[in-house]
Structure formats: C-alpha cells, structure tokens
C-alpha cells in the first residue's frame, strides 16, 4: 500500500486517510500521485540539486564515513534492496523519456509500478516521484529530453542526488548485464519481470541467467556496420536524448553477441554469474559452481 506524507493514498483524494478502493484505476492512481502537492514539491526540490558526475576514481569522495565506500550500481530493468550497514550508496540509471505520449512505454511502466506498490501488503512511503513530465524538458526544436538520467541514493539517509556515471563505475559484469536487458525480451522466464541482480544478505552480485536466440545474434551482425547516426536513428526511441556513450555501448554489446552467440557459454548449465566484493570496495568473479547450493540456484 502507498503512503504519502504519512497517510494512506488513493486516487480519489490526495489527502485521504482511508484505504483506497480496489476499483481505483491504475492510471488515475498515477496521475493523482503526480499531482500530489508533497510529491510535486519533492520533484521541484530534486531538480534544484546539481547533478553529480561519478567515476570509479571519484568513489572515495562519495562518503565521509569510509575510505573504501561500497556501492551497488543498477541498470534499467534491474532492481535491488540494500542494507545500509553493507552498502553506502545505490546508483541507478533511468532511460530518456523521448517524446512522451500517453501510449508510450514510460507511462504504462510507471502505471504498473504504482499499481503494484498499491496492491502489496507492505507499506511504501513514497517521498519522490520525479518521472514522466516532472523529468522532461524540450529544446528549441521540440525534442524531449530527460532532465536527469540517473541518481545516487545515500542508503543511510535515503536522500537522492541526481548523478551521471562513467563506464568504470558501472560494475560488475557491465556488458553481460547490458545484454540481459536486451535478451530478456526473448527469454520467456523473464517475461514481465525485473532482472535479479544483487543479493542483499550476502552483499554479492548474482547475475541470474538469461538466454538469447540466434535471431538476436543475426540482428547484431546486421547492425554492426551502421554509421553512428544510423545506429542512433535505428536503435534508439529517442535519438536526440541519448548520452554520448550510447553508440559505443551498442557496438560493444553487438561485438559480445557475435563472439558469444551461444548463451550457454556465458551461463554454463544455466547457472548465475557471481561476484564478491573486494577489500577496496570493488568486485571479483567468484566460483559459481562452488556457490550454487549456497545461493539457491541448484537445479
């Protein structure tokens, strides 16, 4: 169930103290949340914060409590919960909104998220909802851009900081995790699900397996010789809003697919790829076969 400002929330009234009707429409729920004065104010406050640029070499500046800060980085479609005793920061990245329309992919996604939160038995206290129109700007040509494409969460306080991240900070297993985002649409075991990434109790990244078909490899082969401008226009729903590393990331992804056309080479016996934290806060590959029973992926 969703709470805002300490009160249960429904689409019927932004200040309702009673439980929401089960007949409330998810779209109305999202729109009511977007218009709630507390959340509108929080969005304005969030957008007033200067964006922080984060790189692996700068991580020592992210916290005053440790010389080796520990963080968890998330790509789109990934999710994680963290223990502040183990993780200082969670890093998230969100995609561009593009020319936002009611029938675009972002609106249904946000609708589904708030609908799910409202239906759960747990209480979710929403304090920031800087999405859709609250996180969109347009240039002089009418092209839509996200105001921010990522954020940093301070786990001990829950505070949010707009942020952008270089490639070195997007660890571990960056390219395989990027590939899973694309390949998961072909894998029926991931249909309609967010991607498992991080194990809270053990402070390890557990990259659950995902399969891909030869069709995805053939697509990579057909796209690899395109020019940068052609890649933008062909592969992005919002070419004008992509970051400077979009094309390079796409090429790296295709190269991996071409070199590893069989997903079973990446996930032998459909076992996860496991990464343990090092003493300096980085990550190292663990022996997945040794850890299979421990993390509960035995067949």
TrEMBL record:
* The organism of origin for this protein: Herrania umbratica
Protein name as annotated = Protein N-terminal asparagine amidohydrolase isoform X5
Region entry Disordered, spans: 1-24
Q: Name one cellular component (GO) term.
A: nucleus
GO terms for MF:
protein-N-terminal asparagine amidohydrolase activity
A GO BP term here is: ubiquitin-dependent protein catabolic process
Q: Which InterPro entries match?
A: NTAN1
Stretches of Low complexity bias are at 10-24
């Amino acid at each position: 169930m969703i709470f805002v400002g300490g009160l249960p929330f429904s689409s019927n009234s932004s200040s309702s103290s009673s439980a929401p009707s089960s007949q409330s429409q998810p779209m109305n729920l999202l729109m009511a949340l977007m218009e709630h004065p507390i959340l509108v104010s929080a969005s304005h406050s969030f957008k007033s914060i200067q964006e922080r640029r984060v790189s692996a070499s700068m991580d020592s500046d992210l916290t005053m409590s440790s010389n080796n800060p520990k963080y968890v980085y998330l790509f789109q479609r990934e999710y994680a919960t963290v223990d502040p005793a183990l993780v200082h920061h969670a890093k998230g990245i969100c995609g561009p909104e593009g020319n936002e329309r009611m029938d675009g992919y972002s609106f249904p996604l946000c609708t589904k998220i708030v609908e799910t939160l409202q239906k759960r038995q747990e209480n979710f206290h929403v304090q920031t909802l800087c999405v859709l129109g609250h996180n969109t700007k347009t240039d002089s040509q009418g092209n839509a851009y996200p105001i921010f494409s990522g954020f940093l969460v301070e786990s001990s306080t829950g505070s949010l900081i707009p942020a952008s991240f270089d490639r070195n900070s997007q660890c571990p297993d960056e390219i395989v995790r990027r590939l899973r985002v694309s390949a998961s649409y072909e894998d029926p075991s991931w249909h309609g699900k967010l991607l498992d990434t991080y194990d809270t109790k053990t402070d390890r990244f557990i990259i659950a397996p995902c399969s891909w078909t030869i069709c995805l490899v053939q697509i990579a082969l057909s796209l690899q010789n395109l020019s940068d401008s052609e890649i933008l226009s062909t592969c992005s729903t919002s070419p004008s809003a992509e970051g400077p590393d979009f094309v390079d990331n796409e090429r790296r992804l295709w190269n991996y697919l071409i070199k590893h056309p069989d997903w079973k080479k990446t996930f032998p016996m459909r076992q996860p790829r496991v990464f343990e934290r090092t003493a300096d806060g980085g990550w190292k590959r663990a022996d997945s076969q040794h850890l299979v029973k421990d993390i509960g992926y035995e067949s």
